[in-house]
Specification:
three-stranded antiparallel sheet, seven-stranded mixed sheet, binds pantoate, 21% strand, alpha/beta
Length: 290
């Protein structure tokens, strides 16, 4: 373990196990905040929540090659470990775990976690191998640390649904805690990939939030037709010349199935490319509360 001025940094799995075991031996609870680094206030809110609910909060920082396909931004994904460590310390974390790819995957894995069905819709259509990579690395992190709780942002809503389902199906003894999306003042969801946006593209990136609000308004005003709600969301995306939309969808919040008639707890989800940045966002609507 190298003791930085801000927060202890652990780079090897064996050292991580020792550090976490020491905390647990004293009866301490352990919270995990899995990240790929280049942290923002949204990540910090997860750390703050974990620090309030656990004796030791570990933030993992690992850009996971398994969840990037050929041609995606694995090589250029933004990285700044020193800045991340300071942000983790400021938010109350006790330890940063930042393994190398060789330490995380000492041999090419031939075992993979697939959450069937949930991995094939929405983001899974555009990124068919992505969620197997996510589920596999999260399962490994759970195995390495044995956290009592793990914290994920609702910004990656499908990821959260997949991790919840994996945890339930594999009876993993972890409470998966979903936390609200953090937004800039103009509604853009915070994301490490927002750094790819140029000054000219940045205002256009709010189109995702505008599309979601328009979809929500349609449901609030009484539309119960998924076609109708998706069409109004898609129209907002299409009207932004700097955006190339991938999808605008309304699904059941728990199953991610597309209902025939809108009812119960729904999730509106959109994805679009703006310049180099591929952006996703989502919003919940509970028909029972309207
Ligand atoms: O959301 C992320 O940053 C990543 O997908 C995660 C959960 C850390 C797995 O690599």
């Amino acid at each position: 373990m190298s003791a930085g001025t801000e927060i202890p940094l652990v780079e090897r799995v064996s050292e991580l196990r020792d550090a976490v075991e020491a905390a647990r031996a004293q009866g301490g609870s352990v919270g995990l905040v899995p990240t790929m680094g280049y942290l923002h206030e949204g990540h910090q809110s997860l750390v703050t929540r974990s620090a309030a609910e656990n004796d030791l909060t570990v933030v993992s920082i690992f850009v996971n090659p398994l969840q990037f396909a050929e041609g995606e931004d694995y090589g250029t994904y933004p990285r700044d470990l020193e800045r991340d460590r300071k942000m983790c310390a400021a938010a109350g974390a006790g330890l940063v775990f930042a393994p190398s790819a060789d330490d995380m995957y000492p041999q090419t894995p031939i075992t993979s976690v697939t959450v069937k069905g949930l991995n094939a819709v929405l983001e899974g259509r555009v990124r068919p191998t992505h969620f197997d990579g996510v589920a596999t690395v999260v399962a490994k992190l759970f195995a390495m640390l044995g956290p009592g709780r793990a914290y994920f942002g609702e910004k990656d809503y499908q990821q959260l649904a997949i991790i919840r389902r994996m945890t339930a199906d594999l009876s993993l003894p972890v409470e998966v805690v979903g936390c609200p999306t953090f937004r800039e003042s103009d509604g853009l969801a915070m994301s490490s990939r927002n750094v790819y946006l140029t000054a000219e593209e940045r205002p256009a990136a709010t189109v995702l939030w505008r599309s979601l609000q328009t979809g929500r308004d349609a449901v609030v005003q009484g539309s119960r037709s998924p076609d109708e709600v998706e069409a109004v969301m898609a129209a907002v995306l299409a009207a932004e010349p700097k955006a190339s939309p991938d999808y605008a969808a309304v699904v059941d919040a728990a199953t991610l199935d597309r209902p025939d008639v809108l009812d119960g707890e729904l999730r509106l989800l959109v994805a679009a490319r703006v310049g180099r940045a591929r952006l996703i966002d989502n919003l919940g609507v509970d028909c029972a509360r309207l």
